[in-house]
Amino acid sequence: MNLKHSIKFLLSLALCLSLGRAEDVPETLRRLIQDGRFIEAANTSDRLLALNSSHPEALATKSQALSGFLDFDQALVVAEKALRQNEQSADAHLAKGIALMGLAIESISFQSIVQVSRALDAMEESVKLDPTYGYAWFTLGLSRGKLPLLLGGSKPLSLQCAQTLKRIDRSWGLALEGTLQESFGTWKESESIFQEGLKLKENPSLIVTAYLESLMGENAKNSLGIEGQKERIYEIAKDLSTRQDLNVHALESLGDAFLFSGHPEAAWQLMQVSIPRFQESSLLKLQSAKIASRTGLHLSEALVLIREALQSPIEGGSGGREGAYVRQGQILQRLGKSTEAKRSFEQALRINPRHRGAKEGLEVVQKK
Hints:
mainly alpha, Serine Threonine Protein Phosphatase 5, Tetratricopeptide repeat
């Protein structure tokens, strides 16, 4: 697994999962972030900052919400401001680490290597300041396990994080341990760990997201074979999709699983049933657009959904606002509306000039 995919996996998983209480920051702020409710977290922190612009916990929350929106540059600025207000804030150090990891995604270069090192240092400081901060242990353990050795990766250190985390919160620890075992090539051990996690009542969305991400990985494919992997993914996704206790991130992962296993209509129907259940459903609308743009199914309906999503703040998961414009462009292109598609790709590039999908889409429509 290359560096860019490793960091993307870290952010997509660590930013979408929930954990229990903390002692040194207001419970509501930390839980909003850890539940992946970035829009609500941003709004809550903004209200606090309107009363006190130097509120360190609100600044840390705002930074992590910005990372959830994939705005890593501003997230780093806000995290560093939080640290100037309180150098002992575990949340601010973690916010800084996540923002630095995000920045490393955008430009794989020598600078990104430095950013990864600084990110790991910030995460280490976070767990040092608050040894019970499970979210930070998860992020640190996943980083240590996914990164190459020369960039700070370490199998023993990552597994130590998992063991520590299991003592803090067993479901989170199992999710981390299962993810790590898959990345280390021990799929049977990984699946056994995830099956244990699914039996727990706590954090079902966490286990489902981590399990499906691992099941769609290269090592699972090597163990099960391509067709065996697809059959297993479909079997698991079909079973898990009946659960009513999953959040939008787990449902997004189920959509990916159905799509990966060759059942796009099942993925589409799951999104349509799930969207009305959530006030903040931008991830599910973007996932619907992804399904349509890749398969050609339900193009007109998906275009309505992506336009609805673009009217409001969009959470990270599916690529943020620039990703939404790319999906819109791809759908418009399939519908034969090249001029509108061109505008969508250009809007994506204004947000992120390096977006590969936007560049490729623009090149295609310009040739027509």
